[in-house]
Amino acid sequence: MDIREEALNAHKEHQGKLQVASKMPLKNMHDLSIAYTPGVAEPCKEIALNKDLSFEYTCRGNMIAVISDGTRVLGLGDIGPEAAMPVMEGKSVIYKTFADVDAVPICLGTKDQAKIIETIKLLEPSFAGINLEDFSSPKCYDIEDILKKEMNIPVFHDDQHGTAIAALAGILGALRFVKKDIKNVKIVVNGAGAAGTAIGRILLNAGAENVIMVDMAGALYEGMPGLNRVQAELAKDTNKNKLQGNLA
């Protein structure tokens, strides 16, 4: 079998990659009385007095939501929330396998920015953090910015910051290998979407002084027409000589 066939067979055989498992035993009536009624009322009463105790008495303290609207899935584009589910489920498995963090995949049946923001805000009592995944640009910037301001738990957009962290790590490793300082090298970033702009910004924050961003319209420069607000801000700090043209 090739990768395509093997992936389809594996997902079909297991019906996805996640399952729910109980941390507490339910072998007899006593166990049931502790996990559920009447014992369950005790943590409920404690949390009612102090909401922050939900992080200690429930799974919330180690639970995040991996959320998408399916509008920018991998390299597949706008394929819808149902088709995005295998990716969100896969990310949840990665969290559990490599960090022992429990994660729940959630795919929203709307592309409306206001509805997405309101829905995610309403989920806050159930989770310790939010992982935004595969939202189209430039909508993804506004969703993240607003949620960070209005929620009391961490909000992380993986396509931006996760990719940027990995890219910076690779570049720093390469520079150590060739014995060069990030301040003295020229870096061209091919792509200025959600991931590309975040990579560009983290490179600047790491000390890079000669960064050029390139997208389908060519090299970004300050004052270039057609840029979104994030690209426009980045263009102020990159391509100081205002070079124009395609990647070549």
Automatic annotation (TrEMBL):
<protein>
    <submittedName>
        <fullName>NAD-dependent malic enzyme</fullName>
        <ecNumber>1.1.1.38</ecNumber>
    </submittedName>
</protein>
<feature type="domain" description="Malic enzyme N-terminal">
    <location>
        <begin position="15"/>
        <end position="148"/>
    </location>
</feature>
<dbReference type="InterPro" id="IPR046346">
    <property type="entry name" value="Aminoacid_DH-like_N_sf"/>
</dbReference>
<dbReference type="InterPro" id="IPR012301">
    <property type="entry name" value="Malic_N_dom"/>
</dbReference>
<feature type="domain" description="Malic enzyme NAD-binding">
    <location>
        <begin position="160"/>
        <end position="248"/>
    </location>
</feature>
<dbReference type="InterPro" id="IPR037062">
    <property type="entry name" value="Malic_N_dom_sf"/>
</dbReference>
<comment type="similarity">
    <text>Belongs to the malic enzymes family.</text>
</comment>
<dbReference type="InterPro" id="IPR012302">
    <property type="entry name" value="Malic_NAD-bd"/>
</dbReference>
<keyword id="KW-0479">Metal-binding</keyword>
<dbReference type="Pfam" id="PF03949">
    <property type="entry name" value="Malic_M"/>
</dbReference>
<keyword id="KW-0560">Oxidoreductase</keyword>
<dbReference type="GO" id="GO:0016491">
    <property type="term" value="F:oxidoreductase activity"/>
</dbReference>
<dbReference type="InterPro" id="IPR036291">
    <property type="entry name" value="NAD(P)-bd_dom_sf"/>
</dbReference>
<dbReference type="InterPro" id="IPR001891">
    <property type="entry name" value="Malic_OxRdtase"/>
</dbReference>
<dbReference type="InterPro" id="IPR051674">
    <property type="entry name" value="Malate_Decarboxylase"/>
</dbReference>
<dbReference type="Pfam" id="PF00390">
    <property type="entry name" value="malic"/>
</dbReference>
